[in-house]
Design a protein that fits this description.
The protein contains twelve helices and 14 strands. With about 350 residues, the chain is an alpha/beta fold. The strands form three sheets. An eight-stranded parallel beta sheet has the order 5-6-7-8-9-10-11-12. The radius of gyration is 20 Å and the shape is globular.
Length: about 350
């Protein structure tokens, strides 16, 4: 018989993180443990704030599958029990971790694949002072790819400042739905002139019909517009790429299905995150081989990471034995509480 426990954690950020719609100074996540016998598997998730997920809603979802998990529900079964989102992500990743420990196998063994070197982009948040932004771009000289968050003005000046500071960098930008449809042509032309390699979610989710058949000078990537396989039919004729995040897909299981289906439709893959500790990033690393762009810098924004973290060496992410999988140490979980930190 399995047992399921969970609690909510708070992880302060080293500095505020600002995007077009909000600023955050801490990361809240649910830590789920699924135990069976002497083994425990762990999963971490933040949830999708822009779809209205809250601590209360995710807690209710976790509780709703308690009996099914105890009875032996599989990861594939979980796809039918819960909708995509944070609760399913945390449980799904805990089940992957549990199987890895029970079989003394790495996640790559379970998937029948080989580890790939991961190189993450470094994210630059919205800054009012362009000199500060340029200084941060220069300070990230050991990252070959920079991901720049755009403000609601389209961010052309910000992109120009980053390009001047880092003429060598690959620059991708994330509009977080902030570009007005009437400004799309002008903004994309300016970004193309600055040698931007990709634009993520330029228009609001549900308001991107104008992208059907749109001849864009830069590849466009769906983020908020693509959560899981259910969204592929709509995004396939509007975007060139999708951003896969485990919080959105509801775990690694759906993420793997989504990547396979997207590639079959000719879409490229970006691998992203919604902040997180090394536990959350480790669960996403098996997806690196599928991705053109990798954005797994979440732990670099935190004041501190988990006791057993991934090792970030410049842009390279090195797997640390013990972070997730057969040799991972147990994490203290306060059963079924909704506050507190590790």
């Amino acid at each position: 018989m399995r047992n399921l426990t969970y609690h909510w954690e708070t992880w302060p950020l080293a500095s505020p993180f600002r995007i077009s719609r909000r600023t955050v100074d801490q990361y809240r996540c649910v830590l789920v443990a699924v135990g069976e016998g002497t083994h425990q598997g762990f999963g971490e998730a933040r949830g999708i704030y822009y779809l209205g997920e809250t601590e209360a809603s995710m807690t209710a979802q976790i509780e709703s599958v308690r009996e099914a998990i105890a009875a032996g529900a599989t990861r594939e079964t979980l796809l039918d029990l819960l909708s995509p989102g944070g609760a399913r992500n945390a449980i799904d990743c805990a089940l992957w971790d549990l199987e890895a420990k029970q079989t003394d196998s790495s996640i790559w063994d379970l998937l029948g694949s080989e580890p790939r070197l991961a190189k993450t982009a470094m994210t630059l948040g919205v800054e009012d002072d362009l000199q500060t932004l340029a200084a941060k771009a220069q300070a990230a000289s050991h990252f070959s790819t920079l991901k720049l968050k755009l403000a609601r003005d389209g961010g052309q000046k910000a992109v120009a400042a980053v390009r001047a500071a880092r003429p060598d960098a690959t620059i991708i930008v994330d509009a977080n739905q902030a570009i007005a449809p009437k400004d799309l042509d002008t903004v994309l032309e300016a970004l193309h002139a600055a040698r931007v390699a990709m634009v993520e979610q330029p228009l609001p989710r549900g308001e991107d019909d104008m992208l059907k058949g749109y001849v864009n000078p830069i590849p466009l990537c769906a983020d908020e517009s693509c959560q899981s396989r259910a969204d592929l039919a709509e995004v396939a004729d509007r975007y060139d790429m999708i951003n896969i995040k485990l919080d959105k897909t509801g775990g690694l299981t759906e993420a793997l299905h989504l990547a396979k289906a997207a590639k079959a439709m000719g879409l490229e893959i970006m691998l992203g995150n919604m902040l997180g500790t090394s536990l959350a990033m480790a669960a996403a690393l098996p997806m690196v081989a599928d991705a053109r762009f990798v954005d797994l810098d979440g732990p670099l924004w935190l004041k501190q990471d988990r006791q057993t973290p991934l090792m970030f060496q410049g842009e390279q992410i090195h797997w640390t034995p013990g972070v997730w999988g057969p040799s991972a140490r147990n994490i203290v979980v306060q059963p079924n509480t909704v506050s507190g930190s590790e």
